[in-house]
Design brief:
Blueprint lengths: L1 H31 L6 H17 L4 H28 L3 H23 L14 E4 L2 E4 H23 L1 H11 L1 H6 L4 H26 L8 H14 L4 H21 L10 H13 L14
Antiparallel strand pairs: 1-2
Helix pairs in contact: 1-5, 1-6, 1-8, 1-9, 1-10, 2-3, 2-4, 2-8, 3-8, 5-6, 6-8, 9-10, 9-11, 10-11
Length: 293
């Protein structure tokens, strides 16, 4: 039982990192209707900024806050001066642009800081506690609580604020939103900025668990996209639950299913995706899109 509890908690912690990126992807999708593949690269850049500031003697919490603010403005500027040129064109073109942006940001990080592994200090104590025979790290619990707080705030943003309603309206019909008095350009910039903030949170959460490298978010981005498909791009709560499900099932399958083990555990989310797409194409918590013709 102790091993089972530990696997579940560790899976929830890992899934929380996937969830942070997935929430950023959902936020951009809700604001623009696009899938932002550059989210992982933006998260890495934010983590490097926080690490560099901390290296200059700035306290870690303050360095992370500065990196988060910088990420917001970076995301807004990317939307204003790059993505906006492609948002109203072919959606496939905009997706390719975000993939190119991912490659560019990763390359810039490697050029400035090289591919050497960097140690990133943890926000949470490295202590452990015992629960029912399982040894659980405080960092894992802290990561889970951070994602729960973000999930609640995002759900409140989309359902209970004018900004959230404006973001959803702009994504569905920009022209009608503009006629209703919504500043479409500003809403898009804010959406990308907030998504960059979520990416920054994901970056500073994952960097202490791995090591800080330009490609550290590559696998997390794949899992985040899987969580978006499983949970549904219209539901912040859905993608968080899906990310947790992926993290937990991946851990359990690696230990309790011998032919999967640690080598094939990456197949778990893709098997889940195939099943969900067959049974419920809009995702576990997503809404069906109704199109009038």
């Amino acid at each position: 039982m102790g091993t089972f509890i530990q696997l579940v908690i560790d899976g929830l912690s890992t899934g929380s990192i996937y969830a942070a990126l997935a929430l950023a992807i959902v936020l951009v999708n809700q604001a623009t209707g696009l899938i932002n593949f550059a989210q992982g690269g933006m998260a890495v850049l934010s983590a490097y900024i926080a690490w560099a500031l901390n290296g200059f003697g700035i306290p870690l919490v303050l360095a992370i806050l500065i990196a988060i603010v910088a990420s917001f403005f970076l995301g807004a500027l990317i939307e204003r001066y790059l993505i906006r040129r492609f948002e109203r064109g072919d959606p496939d073109t905009a997706v390719v642009v975000t993939i190119g942006l991912l490659t560019l940001i990763t390359g810039v990080c490697a050029w400035i800081w090289t591919y050497n592994n960097r140690l990133f200090p943890s926000l949470f104590p490295l202590e452990t506690i015992k629960v029912a025979g399982a040894v659980i790290s405080v960092r894992s619990l802290g990561t889970i609580l951070v994602i729960v707080a973000i999930m609640i705030l995002m759900q409140a943003l989309f359902l209970g604020t004018k900004l959230g309603l404006a973001l959803r309206a702009v994504a569905i019909n920009p022209a009608s939103s503009a006629f209703s008095g919504i500043n479409v350009g500003r809403s898009l910039m804010v959406g990308w900025g907030l998504a960059a903030v979520l990416g920054a949170v994901a970056g500073v959460l994952v960097a202490p668990q791995l090591t800080l490298t330009p490609g550290m978010m590559d696998s997390a981005l794949v899992y985040a996209l899987a969580a978006c498909i499983l949970g549904g791009l219209t539901s912040p709560i859905g993608v968080v639950v899906a990310a947790w499900l992926i993290g937990v099932l991946e851990n359990l399958a690696a230990v309790y299913i011998p032919f999967i083990g640690h080598d094939l555990k990456i197949a778990v989310p893709f098997i889940l995706i195939f099943v969900v797409l067959i049974v419920r194409p809009q995702g576990l918590f997503g809404r069906k899109a109704v199109v009038r013709v």
